[in-house]
Specification:
By secondary structure, the protein is mainly α. It is built from ten helices and no strands.
Amino acid sequence: MIRLLRNTFQNNEPSKTEIINPKRSSANSLFEETSYRAIRVAQRRKWTLIGSILLVFIVGITFLVYNNIVKNRESKLAAEFASIDSIYNQENMAFQKLANAAKENLPKDQMPDNTNSMNLFAQFAKDHPTEPSGWQAAVRAASYFIAKGQNNKAKEVLEPIENNLNKYPLVEIRVRTALATIYAAEQNNTKALEELKLVEDIPANPMPNQARFLQGQILFLSGNKQEAQKVFSQIISTSSEKTPPEMSTQASQIQQQARIWLNYLDI
């Protein structure tokens, strides 16, 4: 009996016990196979968790870096725009001093000489045609050039930005309308009408009749009287329900002008 117990104890010693083979083999028992699968699942979950943590960390760092770059870029653009605006204000102050010194001797049509600041705004717009600050600079410079009769300079500033304004309808309306006016002055009526048609079709355009009125004038001046009559008639028949209240007066004036033109064409 004692000898039997001794043999049993010796057979159960850890050093003599068969270790589970962590690798698959035909010799593995069902228990060993199940343990192997559990170990592999645990390992996969561990690496999946580690990968997810690393991914979140990398995405977070990337976002912070990108956000920092964007902020720095915006700050730089704002500072550059402000410096040009400061030159513009200095030019106006110099003109005001001249006007005060001249008192009533200064011609009424004389304006401040903003050539320097507007050329800087134009260059800023060319350097940043996809930035909102670039668009603002372009509109300011172009408005000045048009007022001075420098249509070519205005066109050079506005054309590069017009296709970047889809998400900013009010700016797009202003830019395309200005370009249409320039093209009409150059007798390029086809291009002018194309621009005005694009303006008319902008979904967020609160005043499509403004573009239509310019269309009618260009059509008439180009000798297309019948099409001009159709456009003016369309303006007159347009309902004012969709017109914003703050623009109702302007909309009414455009319809009144369309009636005048239509009566003139009917003569």
